[in-house]
Amino acid sequence: MKKFSIVIAGGGSTFTPGIVLMLLDNLERFPIRQIKFYDNLDERQKHIADACRIIIKESAPDIHFLSTTDPKEAFTDVDFVMAHIRVGLYAMREKDEKIPLNYGVLGQETCGPGGISYGMRSIGGVLELIDYMEQYSPNAWMLNYSNPAAIVAEATRKLRPNSKIINICDMPVGIEERMAKAIGLSSRKEMVVRYYGLNHFGWWTDIRDLEGNDLMPQIKAHVGKHGYSLKEEMEESQHTDASWMDTFSKAKDLYAVDPDTLPNTYLKYYLYPQEAVEHANPEYTRANEVMDGREKHVFGECDKIVANGTAKGSSLEIDEHASYIVDLARAIAYNTHERMLLIVENKGAIVNFDETAMVEVPCIVGVNGPEPLVQGTIPRFQKGMMEQQVAVEKLVVEAWAEGSYQKLWQALTLSKTVPNAGVAKELLDALIEANKGFWPELS
Ligand code: NAD
Ligand code: G6P
Ligand code: MN
């Protein structure tokens, strides 16, 4: 059986150890001969790589491991690029979240002005990874979950139309796990779903068990009362911080707006942006929570492994819910035709929506990549919201490609989270200042 070679781009990510542990746990399904780490920040990657070298040696000594900042070494002889980079690191995430709050506007990593700001930084970084992959391993596939996935996906569609990149998100997977638990199923794999939207902006329309029985009434009954909160919170979830608990329970109010469908949690930032502002502490946002929480924990544990010379006793956990990445790699490698939610060009999957929009819909995945499944015609409410949001995303990519101040101002003005063009302009000028060296020059 063929064994695969993988490069993890963004080797220094807080998610890397959990993903490595997940890959090691899945070797029977997805055999690996080589794991490489690539990052453009040697210092940061080294902490994670030194620990992962020990983890791999202890559990799968046959796997060749290397960690590098040299693109040629990283991208040569690989079958899959698993990409999760964060251009500008948490320091810039913190600014994305705090600057809008100064103007009374939502400050969020991927939604509203914060997401636009992050998108303007990410596009160049992800395009660079694609170019390295195409130069050094032209047959490889990139499975990308670098955020903001909606804007990154639109940029790759427009600027690298023939590239073998698939953009994915773990939020629907995470919510589906919660739905399954809420109604007493053992896993989301016991459900077949219909869903449509943009990334971090979508709705479930139909959920059935494997025999075809409708599960929507049961799930709706739970969501109507508790949102996606569960009595017993799942242990492995990365999403157990208080801010995530609020997000899961808020789904109740999102559901109330359209009880025909079940909402993605991220819609709270578009349907209740003022509430998000009121609940935010402008001195201490999610970026601070992550730096003080996940980042400290992961880097601390990695340093401990290195100091002890062994991973025994480490509290690093398998990122179980990231195993959908293995499902995706297997679908391509073994032509499994697994049904998965992915971010793909619409091309008619949502019948009454822009054909060139990057939408999130169920796809059948095989050796040629994803084949989107038609989700039909969508109602006016969702269509209206999605048209506004997709225009924001497309304007950001046009602004990046053309260096257009005007288009980025329009993008911010159009975002449902920004009250008017005047605030949008003030915000834009502050974000330009903060992103010097990361954004292209705008004129
Ligand atoms: P992190 O800052 O811990 O890690 C990101 C790493 O990327 C850093 O080590 C950084 O040095 C590296 N990097 C930055 N720019 C780079 C470039 N141009 N080339 C190579 N490496 C580069 O961040 P994190 O919180 O672990 O998140 C990583 C990414 O994964 C983020 O984009 C995050 O939004 C994304 N993410 C996405 C999903 C999803 O659903 N799609 C889920 C979880 C995380
Ligand atoms: C979910 C989303 C990701 C996002 C992450 C943020 O998993 O799908 O796109 O990156 O949440 O989590 P964090 O813990 O970094 O706030
Ligand atoms: Mn996501």
From TrEMBL:
Q: Which Pfam families match?
A: Glyco_hydro_4 (PF02056), Glyco_hydro_4C (PF11975)
Q: Which CDD domains does the record associate with it?
A: GH4_GlvA_pagL_like (cd05298)
Give any GO molecular function from the UniProt entry.
metal ion binding
InterPro entries on file: GlycHydrolase_4_CS (IPR019802), Glyco_hydro_4 (IPR001088), Glyco_hydro_4_C (IPR022616), Lactate_DH/Glyco_Ohase_4_C (IPR015955), NAD(P)-bd_dom_sf (IPR036291)
Quote the record's cofactor note.
Binds 1 NAD(+) per subunit.
Arranged from A to Z, the UniProt key words for this protein are: Glycosidase, Hydrolase, Manganese, Metal-binding, NAD
Q: Which cofactor does it need?
A: NAD(+)
Q: Does the keyword Ribosomal protein apply?
A: no
Q: Which GO terms describe its biological process?
A: carbohydrate metabolic process
Is Metal-binding included in the keywords of this UniProt record? Answer: yes
- What PANTHER family would the database entry show? 6-PHOSPHO-BETA-GLUCOSIDASE-RELATED, MALTOSE-6'-PHOSPHATE GLUCOSIDASE
Q: Give the similarity note.
A: Belongs to the glycosyl hydrolase 4 family.
Q: State the protein's name.
A: 6-phospho-alpha-glucosidase
